[in-house]
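Internal tracking record. Fields below are filled automatically when a chain is submitted to the structure queue. Please do not edit lines marked as system-generated. If the sequence contains nonstandard residues, flag them in the REMARKS field before resubmitting.
Queue: standard
Priority: normal
Entity type: single polypeptide chain
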Amino acid sequence: MAIDSRTVRRLAALARLDIPEESVALRANELTALVASLGPLETIDAVAANEPISSPRRADRTVESRSESFTPLDGPLAPSGALIVPLIKKPN
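SYSTEM-GENERATED OUTPUT FOLLOWS
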């Protein structure tokens, strides 16, 4: 499937990209090559790929969460015991 210049401009508009007119043909060639490289994916048997795994890779079990007495090694705690996260960006 060949991607033409009109399609490149449409994709750029949808993605809100400013593609210079002199590079539209290059981008069309790159997208055509990308689409062509995806061709082998059509040979995948999608039905077989969606069959359930016969034996799980790990046991499906619940695990205990951290106890209420757990405190992080760093960072101040609020009176409620919650970790206080410092502001990264100061509000205006």
